[in-house]
Amino acid sequence: MKTLVETPAQPSPAVVNTTHSPAKPPLPREHGAWAVLLVPFATAVGISGAFTLPVGLLLISVLCFFIARASLLRAIAAGFRLRPGASLSAVDTMANAKWALGLLALSAAAAIPLVLVWHRWWLLAFGALAAPLAFRKTERALPMQLLAMTGLTLTAPAAWYVATGRLDAGAWGLWLLNSLFFAGAFFHVKMHLAAAIRRTTAGVTAGTVAYHVALVAALTALVLAGQLPWAVALVFAPAVVRAAVGAWRLSPKLQIKRLAWTEVGYSLAFGLGLIATARWTMR
């Protein structure tokens, strides 16, 4: 598919439009990605009860890193689209590259005190894990998309570690619970997209149904084994019901904005529910 900058050069570069103003960085437009990034972070902070200066610095570092990713990927994409005469594309590419470098520098500046002053050395490992996932091209393969999603939920153990100074079972338990929830949301959204693309609901619900059946079985096993409080497991109930109703009433007609904002609502409800039930069971 041709884009605007792939058309023949125009007499004046002023007629060539850009996708955003170079005066500000391009923010990621995916509502779901913001939720996957920030809800796990919020659950760790909410359950630990510690929103301290180190936690604030980590939040700044995470946000700058996340926005820098969008700037860098747009700079790379625009660079590949450059054609003779498309001067504003070159300006746009340079602006994106500058924003990416500046934001990455700010992200590092916020993270360095966490390592050197508060001795959160394991953040270096988190960064080493997150960077390859963040700056790789968008994948279409299902396993790679799920891997990228679980990479975003690493904000939960990272925030727990910074807030408490411990990288313990609580940190990885939060990562697991958030990953399980957002994997379900991922399958749910993919089901709706597949129905809209194929213009039929036949054969597109199997993945969502299978995942949520496995999720219920796994949560039940954890509760029976004494590894998960029943109240925490019940936080997943709205998502399971959503998936069941969504599969039952699935339509090829896609209302993308409604779907996106509904998923954000479920994500917020999950995060608040997890904080409330976890703190209640810890009393």
Question: What can you see in these coordinates?
Answer:
- With 283 residues, the protein is mostly helical.
- It has helices spanning 31-48, 53-81, 87-116, 123-134, 142-152, 155-164, 169-198, 206-224, 230-233, 237-248, 256-281.
- Residues 1-19 and 82-88 have low confidence and may be disordered.
In short:
The chain has 283 residues and is mainly alpha-helical.
Order of helices and strands: HHHHHHHHHHH
- Per DSSP E runs of 2 or more residues, the count of β-strands stands at 0
Q: Overall mean pLDDT score?
A: 85
Give me the number of helical elements.
Answer: 11
Relative helix content: over 70%
How much strand?
A: under 5%
Measured on Cα atoms, how large is the radius of gyration?
Answer: 21 Å
Query: Which spans have pLDDT < 50 for at least 5 consecutive residues?
Result: 1-19, 82-88
Which structural class fits the helix and strand makeup? mainly alpha
Q: Give the distance, in angstroms, between the N- and C-terminal Cα atoms.
A: 58 Å
Shape category:
flat
In total, how many domains does the architecture comprise? Answer: 2
* Main sheet summary: none
Keywords:
11 helices, 0% strand, mainly alpha, 283 residues, flat
How are the elements arranged and paired?
Layout: H1 31-48, H2 53-81, H3 87-116, H4 123-134, H5 142-152, H6 155-164, H7 169-198, H8 206-224, H9 230-233, H10 237-248, H11 256-281
Helix pairs in contact: 1-6, 1-7, 1-11, 2-3, 2-6, 4-5, 6-7, 7-8, 7-10, 7-11, 8-10
